[in-house]
């Protein structure tokens, strides 16, 4: 027997194995590092000049960022502990957000109020890669709902601190905000009112319709098919279709104009968003009620509960997590769709998006798009946590 035959087999440590999703994240990060980190323009509308990561920052800061990126690359690529992946992902994201502001300060000539510096494609791709790393780690760790909400609050507070510190003041998106701050907050209130208001109205009207469809089975197919047809109409077309009837109502119905109903503006936008919200709310109400255990209903009957008492005290509470899932879908959808309201004078963050497109000012587009995406993401995280907290057998802490 040879020495080779008697040798003890060796195994690689588990952390040296490749993470399958991490390979994709690492490839995205490599592409991001190779693309321009920042974009310099002499003014807000002229074509920009790209700056690589090495050119966009002073030597020390660019070296520091490269080190962070290499650590993040290794953490994503290998099967290191998930908590380590989460920590590294957050650290790399923090470094990216802090240093992109420093890049704007570094590239802007002194006393030049016309120059604009924007994050480049490489920055956004790097943010996407390490946000994917953080999201994957959070999914694997399966934190309790309240912990996830706490992490969201901490991240929001850290970002607010970054903005308050002035580190981003030289970024062109913040310069656009500085000249439009009152308008920004006014449109933010409009956007929130459209998104949350339409969902609130849909819940108040849609849940009773869903209950009715559950109780009266012949009505169910007709209602759901009608709402499904509404859902298939493109958003811009639906906004346009509502202009004429609402203009007629405003002109012919006493008091309609006084309460804000008109052919253009917030009224048609609110009606359209409400129409889009009905199908998920109604269908999830029906599905939720259908999923209630017959044993629970029989037990309620045995206790002498009437039909309405069973509905209010047993069936709706047990169906609530499914109904809340429909509300989550609708809210995230409407936060995005409310952007289109600007096309008919409805206001919201879409005002900046379409103004920026018209002026070829991409930073103005970002001023409307970034808060919309952040708001939709935050709403999804919070409502996902609430769904889990209210689900039967879900963790409560």
Can you describe this structure in just a few lines?
This protein is an all-alpha fold. Helix content is about 75%, strand content about 5%.
Quick tags:
17 helices, 397 residues, MetI-like fold, flat, MetI-like_sf, three-stranded antiparallel sheet
Number of domains in the coordinates?
2
Low-confidence runs (pLDDT<50, min 5 residues)?
none
Q: Would you tell me which CATH topology of the largest domain applies?
A: MetI-like fold
Summarize the biggest pleated sheet.
3 strands, antiparallel
Structure characterization notes:
A three-stranded antiparallel β-sheet has the order 2-1-3. It is mainly alpha-helical and 397 residues long. 73% of the residues lie in helices and 3% in strands. It has 17 helices and three strands. It folds into two domains: 14-142, no CATH class; 181-390, MetI-like (MetI-like fold, Orthogonal Bundle). α2 (20-34) packs antiparallel against α4, α8 (172-178) packs across α17 (362-390) and α15 runs antiparallel to α17. The model has no long low-confidence stretch (mean pLDDT 86). It is flat and about 75 Å long. β1 (38-41) and β2 form a beta hairpin. Residues 188-388 form the ABC transmembrane type-1 domain. Pfam families: BPD_transp_1. This is ABC transporter permease. The chain crosses the membrane at residues 21-40, 60-80, 87-107, 113-134, 146-164, 192-214, 226-250, 256-279, 335-358, 364-387. It is a multi-pass membrane protein.
């Amino acid at each position: 027997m040879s020495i080779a035959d008697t040798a003890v087999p060796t195994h690689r440590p588990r952390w040296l194995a490749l993470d399958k999703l991490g390979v994709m994240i690492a490839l995205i990060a490599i592409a991001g590092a190779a693309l321009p980190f920042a974009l310099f323009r002499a003014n807000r509308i002229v074509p920009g000049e790209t700056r690589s990561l090495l050119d966009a920052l002073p030597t020390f800061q660019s070296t520091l960022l490269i080190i962070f990126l290499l650590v993040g690359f290794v953490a994503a690529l290998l099967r290191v502990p998930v908590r380590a992946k989460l920590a590294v992902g957050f650290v790399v994201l923090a470094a990216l957000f802090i240093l992109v502001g420093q890049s704007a300060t570094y590239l802007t000539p002194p006393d030049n109020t016309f120059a604009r510096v924007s994050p480049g494609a490489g920055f956004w791709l790097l943010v996407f890669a390490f946000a994917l790393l953080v999201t994957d780690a959070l999914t694997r760790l399966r934190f309790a709902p309240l912990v996830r909400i706490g992490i969201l609050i901490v991240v929001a507070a850290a970002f607010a601190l970054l903005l308050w510190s002035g580190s981003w003041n030289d970024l062109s998106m913040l310069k656009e905000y500085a000249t439009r701050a009152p308008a920004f907050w006014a449109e933010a209130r409009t956007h929130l009112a459209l998104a949350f208001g339409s969902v609130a109205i849909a819940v108040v009207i849609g849940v009773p319709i869903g209950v009715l469809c559950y109780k009266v089975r012949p009505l169910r197919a007709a209602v759901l098919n009608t709402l499904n047809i509404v859902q298939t109409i493109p958003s811009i077309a639906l906004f346009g279709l509502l202009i004429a009837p609402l203009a007629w109502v405003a002109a012919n119905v006493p008091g309609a104009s006084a309460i804000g109903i008109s052919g253009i503006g917030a009224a048609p936008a609110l009606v359209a968003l409400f129409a889009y919200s009905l199908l998920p709310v109604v269908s999830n109400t029906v599905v939720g009620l259908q999923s209630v255990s017959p044993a629970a209903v029989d037990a309620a009957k045995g206790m002498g509960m009437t039909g309405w008492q069973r509905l209010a005290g047993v069936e709706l509470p047990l169906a609530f997590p499914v109904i809340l899932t429909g509300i989550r879908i609708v809210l995230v959808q409407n936060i995005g769709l409310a952007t289109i309201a600007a096309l008919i004078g409805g206001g919201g963050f879409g005002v900046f998006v379409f103004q920026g497109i018209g002026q070829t000012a991409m930073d103005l587009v970002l001023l409307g798009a970034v808060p919309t995406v952040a708001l939709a993401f935050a709403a999804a995280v919070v409502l996902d946590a609430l769904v889990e907290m209210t689900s039967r057998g879900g963790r409560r802490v």
